[in-house]
TrEMBL record:
Taxonomic lineage: Bacteria, Pseudomonadati, Pseudomonadota, Betaproteobacteria, Neisseriales
Protein name: Biotin synthase
Pathway: Cofactor biosynthesis; biotin biosynthesis; biotin from 7,8-diaminononanoate: step 2/2
EC id: 2.8.1.6
Encoding gene, per UniProt annotation: bioB
Organism: Neisseria gonorrhoeae
A GO MF term: 2 iron, 2 sulfur cluster binding
Length: 416
């Protein structure tokens, strides 16, 4: 007697024909609180929500690592797809990197760096605030916010000719990229016209251009691209789960929306964050995971160390240990192997040995100049001396004469 299927057996006992199968199990979308990776779990309609808490990541067995139904995910009909251009980084995997022995982590990051870049080349950028103060956002770290009493007045936008002169000076000192920032929540259409004229003028000097102007409306990114902008900076700032603790006037989703517009316009992305804002190591891992899982990954990743300014809510934040900052740079290099990792704000308070360790761990870009928007930065002479000590040289630097011949024959860059 041929074996019967379970449906046939039930139908025979009931005296009915198995013409229609039972209602299929539905798929419920869950999101891991720890690594944020969504997944579908088959669940029969008769079961209650108590079965919604399922383990997803076998590598970590903690109470925090529990699945819960995500209302946003339940409304989405599209299937979760793997990261098409790079590995998908779970937050728990990034946290595991942070937990490696310090020198082992730096060594692994240095290996990844050498597989993707010349470890002696440093990309130099200069940052200029073209419109300072009076920003309506309430970022807890920013002295330009109108919500904080930092004795920083609101200034009008700089004149085009003055900006171009600053760019010429930056180029003469070795900077290959000129970055411009404006303290706006987002530019108005008339602001985009003004900024576009500035971008065209700076681009005419033969420099790369980068802008950070806040949230963009539809069509603005295309206008900036047409004007000659190469990069758009829009940082994710901190762990998505902690975002509303640092900023209350916008959401993490607003940042992602602008980044999507920038990518769709064909602009390169400069996107990083700030550490030292009383966050935990797990929250630093969340920041790096959110950056590494952008698709595609940012071409430039600025890692900022909080500059504490009197009058801001984070003026009394606890100092971040220097090894944690180096760990952050190392993990950024491992998770984003082809991105330029930039030592950004806070470098003026970093000893030379600490900066050298960061370069060893994969940092290959710095802001070059004595000021970052409104906070201090090492002067050019100090940076030049440090680079000479470490036998580093600027990106796009071309040795001359016999040195160039030796370099060409050996394949090794010579000192400058």
């Amino acid at each position: 007697m041929p074996s019967e299927s379970p449906l046939d057996g039930i139908a025979r006992l009931r005296g009915t024909k198995a013409e229609k199968p039972f209602a299929p199990y539905f798929q419920t979308r869950y999101t891991c609180r720890r690594c944020f990776q969504p997944f579908d779990y088959p669940q029969p309609p008769s079961l209650r929500r108590r079965f919604a808490c399922q383990r997803h990541c076998a590598a970590v067995n903690t109470k925090e690592h529990i699945m819960t139904v995500s209302p946003v995910a339940l409304r989405r009909k599209t299937e979760c797809k793997p990261h098409p251009t790079a590995r998908y980084w779970k937050k728990c995997d990034v946290e595991a990197l942070f937990g490696l022995p310090f020198l082992e982590l730096v060594y692994q990051a240095a290996e990844v760096h050498r597989q993707n870049f010349n470890p002696r080349e440093i990309q130099l950028s200069t940052l200029l605030s073209i419109k300072t103060g009076g920003c309506p956002e309430d970022c807890a770290y920013c002295p330009q916010s109108a919500h904080h009493n930092t004795n920083l007045g609101k200034e009008q936008m700089m004149d085009v000719d003055e900006i171009v002169e600053k760019a010429k000076i930056a180029k003469s000192r070795g900077a290959s990229r000129f970055c411009m920032g404006a303290a706006w929540r987002g530019p108005k259409p008339k602001d985009v016209e003004t900024v576009s004229a500035i971008i065209k003028a700076v681009k005419g000097l033969g420099m790369e251009t980068c802008g950070t102007f806040g949230m963009l409306e539809e069509g603005m990114a295309e206008d900036l691209k047409e004007a000659g902008l190469d990069y758009y900076n829009h940082n994710l700032d901190t762990d998505p789960d902690r975002y509303n603790d640092i900023i209350h006037t916008r959401r993490h989703e607003d940042r992602m929306d602008t980044l999507g517009k920038v990518r769709n316009a064909g602009l390169k992305v400069c996107c990083g964050g700030i550490v030292g804002m009383n966050e935990t190591r797990a929250e630093r891992a969340g920041l790096i995971a959110s950056l590494a899982n952008l698709d595609p990954q940012p071409e430039s990743v600025p890692i900022n160390r909080l500059v504490k300014v009197e009058g801001t809510p984070l003026a009394d934040a606890e100092d971040l240990d220097w090894t944690e900052f180096v760990r952050t740079v190392s993990v950024a290099r491992i998770t984003m192997p082809q991105s330029y990792v930039r030592l950004s704000a806070g470098r003026s308070n970093m000893p030379e040995a600490m900066q050298a360790m960061c370069f060893m761990a994969g940092a290959n870009s710095i802001f070059y100049g004595d000021k970052l928007l409104t906070t201090g930065n090492p002067d050019e002479d100090g940076d030049r001396i440090l680079m000479e000590k470490l036998n580093l040289y600027p990106l796009q630097f071309e040795p001359e004469g016999e040195v160039a011949e030796v370099e060409k024959a050996s394949g090794i860059k010579a000192d400058y």
